[in-house]
From TrEMBL:
Protein family per UniProt: Belongs to the protein disulfide isomerase family.
The protein's Enzyme Commission number: 5.3.4.1
Organism of provenance: Aegilops tauschii subsp. strangulata (Goatgrass)
Name of the protein: protein disulfide-isomerase
Keyword entries, A-Z: Disulfide bond, Endoplasmic reticulum, Isomerase, Redox-active center, Repeat, Signal
GO cellular component terms, A-Z: endoplasmic reticulum lumen
């Protein structure tokens, strides 16, 4: 059930629920309309996982007093309240991104996979994730991995101590004692981490590699595009049918400048 908040119950809902995920919206806002189904999908997914988070929505235009009281300052706004403390969501407007963010903020920064069946089931989600392989889940490298997982709000981190399980998720693993890789649902699917196992370097690796070679630019991901640490960005403006002829060329160019240049297409 999604709570419908107003001037009378908004503050009380935040106070009464230890964990509350709130969507602030306006009926006239096109971005709010696009986010609403993704918010509902995220709520359903979190419930299916057994999450204790409560869900609410607030028409901020109709109830401006309530919106101001709970921190809805624009539309759409996604806010998570944990014991009354507000966390504002600034990530991609997708179900998986919202679910990952909520799970991390409520105490589940890393998913542990210990069987081949669980790994195969996880792969069916088709989401981008960082994979860590650590013996007995111990050591300084593992500690830095968990720190990075807690700090990175959008990409799900997954760990295992079984090389055979890891190979299902990232087939290119060799004989490393500890391993980190990024798995994406695109042709350039696997990225191996070659840096030092330190929180800062792990976060930089994930941030620079999480975008596909070519990203479809939309109003739902524009904020993440503009806030990317990769400031050199190439935009291709074309009709969808024209871009089909250009895609392989743009991909090849983007591959040569990976982590240095971001490439986006805008279908008119």
């Amino acid at each position: 059930m999604v709570l419908v908040l107003d001037n009378d119950n908004a503050a009380r809902a935040v106070r009464d629920h230890p964990e509350l995920l709130l969507l602030g919206y306006a009926p006239w806002c096109e971005r709010s309309a696009k986010l609403m189904p993704r918010f509902a999908e995220a709520a359903a997914a979190l419930r299916a996982m057994g999450s204790a988070v409560a869900f609410a929505k607030l028409d901020g235009e109709r109830f401006p007093k309530a919106a101001s009281a709970v921190g809805v300052n624009g539309f759409p706004s996604v806010l998570l309240f944990v014991n009354g403390t507000e966390h504002a969501y600034t990530g991609l407007h997708t179900k998986d991104a919202i679910v990952t963010w909520v799970r991390k903020k409520t105490g589940t920064p890393v998913i542990r996979l210990e069987s081949k069946d669980s790994a195969e089931e996880f792969l069916k989600k088709g989401q981008t994730f960082a994979l860590g392989l650590f013996k007995n889940y111990e050591g300084a490298g593992h500690e830095e991995f968990v720190k990075a997982a807690t700090a990175e709000n959008e990409v799900q981190f997954v760990e295992t101590n079984d090389r055979n399980v890891a190979k299902i998720l990232f087939p290119g693993i060799a004989s490393e004692e500890q391993f980190l890789g990024l798995v994406k649902s695109e042709p350039e699917k696997f990225e191996k981490f070659d840096g030092a196992f330190e929180e800062k370097e792990i976060l930089q690796f994930v941030e620079l590699n999480k975008f596909p070679l070519i990203t479809a630019f939309t109003d739902l991901n524009s904020a993440k595009v503009y806030s990317s640490p990769i400031k050199l960005q190439v935009f291709t403006f074309a009709e969808a049918y024209d871009f089909e002829d250009l895609e392989s060329i743009v991909q090849e160019v983007a591959r040569g400048f990976k982590t240095k240049v971001c490439s986006f297409d805008i279908n008119r």
